[in-house]
Write a structure and sequence with these properties.
five-stranded antiparallel β-sheet, alpha+beta
């Protein structure tokens, strides 16, 4: 399902941008796609198009990139910086994206538009907490500041990543309160509680878009796979998920939260020098019998 992970620190949030998330040449070579700003909050600050490292870092520090002053009033040392929204796809979509080169742009367009539409649903539920006049309640603000990144590979297993088309959208802990006329900390508790609903909405949009491209869809346990791609092939390119599951079984971890934590602890470093064209021969070699 949709994973929403809070940043542990300002430093971690800044590394989110700096650790290779904005490599160029993404359509033909890179493992990641250059980031883009999103949300009505970002537009209000004049943040549109490609993400710049300086503006991203300023938001991590709760600095208004336009004025240079504090964005929200509170500047606590342990201030919550933001959340990483991790949008996952069925493995068969990644296989189709890599194998059918002539349709890559169309498939990617479906994924990105579906993710942005679902983030629009989430933005309409954005809120802040109101504590003035003895009140303690939520007020909808319907705006957010987000940074969108698309990835094409998983974390490596034994030094090599598998194909894994997925999206990350970083949502900053800032939203503009239209009543109090100021930027305040965001309140995402209800959004996080409904993560399963948003993941389902995202997958429904992706499935609809892929059908319009001519793909056949098969429902699978609350998700879907593309018809004609056997389970054995999906398993060949799901080594990271299998490695995490095996470790979880070894340690007796049964919850989704426990597996998420285990994934973070056991992951290998990204392979930054290998391009998609470098990886494709390695991937397709696995299609031969016995690999």
């Amino acid at each position: 399902m949709l994973r929403i992970v809070q940043s542990a620190s300002v430093g971690q949030a800044k590394r989110y941008y700096s650790e290779g998330l904005t490599r160029e040449g993404y359509y033909s070579e890179g493992q990641e796609m250059a980031g883009h700003w999103g949300g009505r909050g970002a537009a209000a600050l004049g943040l549109e198009g490609s993400i710049g490292k300086e503006a991203f870092a300023m938001l991590c520090d709760n600095i208004n990139p336009v004025t240079g002053g504090n964005l929200t009033q509170r500047m606590k040392a342990n201030r919550r910086v933001g959340w990483d929204f991790n949008w996952n796809l069925p493995k068969s979509v990644s296989l189709a994206y890599m194998w059918r080169k002539e349709e890559r742009e169309a498939i990617l367009g479906v994924v990105v538009s579906s993710m942005r539409a679902t983030m629009g649903d989430i933005e309409n539920e954005m809120a802040t907490r109101v504590r003035k006049g003895g009140r303690d309640e939520l007020r909808k603000t319907k705006n957010l500041i987000s940074a969108e990144f698309i990835h094409f590979t998983s974390r490596p297993v034994d030094g090599t990543p598998d194909m894994n088309l997925h999206g990350h959208i970083y949502v900053f802990n800032s939203t503009f309160d239209p009543v109090e006329k100021q930027w305040k900390a965001a309140e995402l508790s209800e959004i996080i509680a409904n993560a399963g609903y948003y993941q389902a909405a995202f997958l429904m949009r992706v499935a609809t878009g892929l059908r319009e491209l001519g793909f056949e869809i098969e429902a699978k346990n609350g998700s879907f796979e593309l018809a004609g791609i056997p389970r054995s092939l999906i398993e060949k390119f799901s080594r990271r998920a299998k490695a995490v599951e095996a470790k979880a079984k070894e340690l007796g971890i049964t919850t989704a939260e426990g597996r998420d934590g285990l994934a973070a602890l056991t992951r290998e470093k990204k392979v930054k020098d290998a391009s998609i064209s470098d990886l494709e021969p390695i991937w397709w070699q696995r299609l031969s019998p016995g690999t």
